Amino acid sequence: MTSRPPLAAPRTPSLLVSLVPVAVLVGLLMLNVRVFGSADNQVALVLAAGVAAVLAVFGLRVPWREIEEGIVSSITMAMPAVLILMCVGLLIGAWIEAGVVPLLVVWGLELIAPSVFLLTACLVCSVVSLATGSSWTTAGTVGVALVGVGQTLGLDLGMVAGAVVAGSYFGDKMSPLSDTTNLAPAMAGSTLVEHIRHMLWTVTPALAISLLLYALLGGAHATSAEGLQRVEATIEVLRAHFVLSPWLALPPALVLVLVAARVPAIPALLCGTFVAVGLGGLFRTPGEDGLLGLVGASFATLFDGFSIQAAALVPAGAEHDVRRAAAASVDALLDGRGGMKGMMGTVALIFCALSFGGVMERSGMLGTIAGAILGLVRGTGSLVAATIATCLGVNVLASDQYMAIVVPGRMFRTAYLERRLHPKNLSRALEDSATVTSALIPWNTCGAQMATVLGVATAAYAPYAFLNWICPLVSIAYGFSGISMTRISDAEARERLAAG
User: Fold this and answer.
1) 263-312: per-residue pLDDT in tens?
2) Mean pLDDT per 10-residue run, the chain (500 residues)?
3) CA 15 to CA 485: how far, in whole Å?
4) 3-class secondary-structure state, position 305
C-alpha cells in the first residue's frame, strides 16, 4: 500500500502578500461608506476575510481547518463582550420603559448648564468608569442619559458622545477593576500597581488637555430664551409620559455598587435590568390586560426596544410648536432604543470583523505586518512609536482590543528588555494605544458598541474623544524625549529575559 506524501508545510507570508487583504478591506470600506453611503460594513469585512482565506489556503498552504479554528478562536475571545452588549441592550430598553433614563435626563437638564456640559459629561463618566472599571457599562448607563441631555440642550451630539467616550475610557485604562488594566501588565511582565502609577504620566496631561478643550467648546453655548423654552418643554413632555419617581435612581446606583464590588458585569447588568422592570411595573397603570399586559409589554421592550410617539399626541396649532418640537426630540432620543434585537447588527459586525482578524492572525499575515514594524525600530522613541502603531494596527485589523494588547505585548516584550527598559514602559504603551484607540474604529468591538448604545456614529464622535487621541501622542512624545522612561540594570534585564 502506497503511503500518502506528507502535506507541504505552510509558507511564511511576505509583507506584500500580508498587505493584500488589508488593501482590499480599506478599499471596500471606502467604497461602502463614500460611494454607497452605508455605515454597515459587515459585507466588506466578510469579503476581505474571504480574500485573506484564499491567500492563506492556496498561497500559503495553511489548511482550512487551521483557518476555521483561527476564526472560531477569535470570536470565542470576544464572546464575553458580545454577551455584555446584549445585556446592555436589555438594560437600556428596561431603563427607558421604567423611566430611569428620562429621570436622569430631567435631572441633567435641571442641574447642568450648557456652557459646562461637555466638561461635566467627561468628568462624570471619568468618575463612574474609574469606580466600575468598565467603559461599556459607563457609556451604556450614564452615557445614554448624558447624550439625551446634550440633544435637548441643542449641543452637537458628536461632541457630547466624544466627551462621554473620553471619560469612559479614562476609567477603563486607570481602574484596577478594569480587565485591560490587568491584562496589559500581565503581557508586559509588570505589576498592576507599577502599571497604574506609570500611566499617570500620560493620562494626567491627556485628561487635563481634554477638559480644557471641552471647556472651550462648551463656552460657546449660552442658554438663550429659546433654549430655555425647549428645555422646559422637554421636561414637561417627559413628565407627561413617565412617572419620574426618585426611586428610579435605584437601578443605576445598584449597577454601580455591584460592579464596584467586583460583581461580574453580566449579572450586575441583569440585576439593574430586572430591578428597573419591577419598579416600572409599580409606577405604571395597568391597562385592560392588567398585570399580564404589563409583563407582555416589558417582554416586547426587552427584545424589540422601547417605542414612543410623543409628537403625534401634541395638538395642532402654532401655539403648540415648541411642545411639538420638544416631543419630536424625545421621540428621536427614546423611540426604538435598546432591546436585544437592536444589538444584533452590532453583533454581526463584531463576528465579521473578528473573522477577518482570525484569518489574518492564524495565517501569520498579522505577525508579518507587526514584524515589519518592529524592523523599523532604532531607538527608544521609535520603539514606543512602533508599539503604539502596532496596537492601533491590530485594533484595525483584528477588531478587538484584547488581541491588540496580547499580540504586541508578546512581540515587543523582549525588545524593551534588550534596551534595558522597565516592562511598565511597555504596559503603559499598550494601554495608551490598544485600549483607548479601540473606540475610534467603527468595526472594532468597542467602536461598534459605543456607536450602538450612544446612538452616535463612531466617525461623528471620534474627533471629539480627545483623551483617546492625546494619550498615544503623549506616550510617543515621552518615548522620544526620555521623560518617565524608567530603565533597569543590565543584570535585571538579563534576569527578566531568562525568566521569559
Assistant:
1) 887 888 899 899 998 888 887 766 555 667 778 888 888 888 888 888 77
2) 56 89 84 70 87 93 92 80 80 87 80 83 86 77 83 87 94 79 81 87 94 87 62 82 88 82 82 90 68 79 86 72 77 79 79 83 84 81 91 81 78 84 92 91 86 90 95 94 90 79
3) 31
4) coil
Count CB neighbours of 290 within 10 A. Answer: 9
Nearest to 120 by CA among 85, 86, 149: 149
Nearest to 125 by CA among 450, 385, 395, 471: 450
Rounded distance between C-alpha atoms, residue 24 and residue 27, angstroms: 5
Decide: 187 and 430 in contact? Cβ < 8 Å: yes
Give the residue among 334, 354, 449, 450 at the shortest CA–CA distance from 402.
Answer: 354
H helix runs in 219-320, sequence order: 225-241, 250-260, 265-283, 290-304
Residue 487's φ and ψ, nearest 5 degrees, are -110, 160
Going by C-beta distance under 8 Å and a sequence separation of 6 or more, which residues neighbour residue 40?
32, 345, 349
Q: How far apart are CA 445 and CA 350, in angstroms?
A: 6
Quick one: which H or E segment has residue 206? helix 192-218
CA 121 to chain centre: 16
Question: Distances in Å between the alpha carbon of 178 and those of 172, 175, 306, 432, 435?
Answer: 6, 5, 30, 14, 11
Return d(Cα 500, Cα 483) in angstroms, integer: 27
Q: How many residues does the chain have?
A: 500
User: 421 φ, ψ to 5°?
Assistant: -100, 130
3-state class (DSSP) for residue 425: helix
Residue 73 CB neighbour total at 10 angstroms: 13
Write the CB contacts of 153 (distance below 8 Å, at least 6 apart in sequence). Answer: 109, 114, 117, 221, 227, 231
- CA gap 255, 273 in Å, rounded: 9
Global pTM?
0.73
Chain segment 199-223, per-residue pLDDT in tens: 999 999 999 999 999 999 887 665 5
Contact 408, 430 (CB under 8 A): yes
Domain range annotation of the chain? 67-77+343-499, 80-342
Residue tagged 421592550 (cell numbers): 301
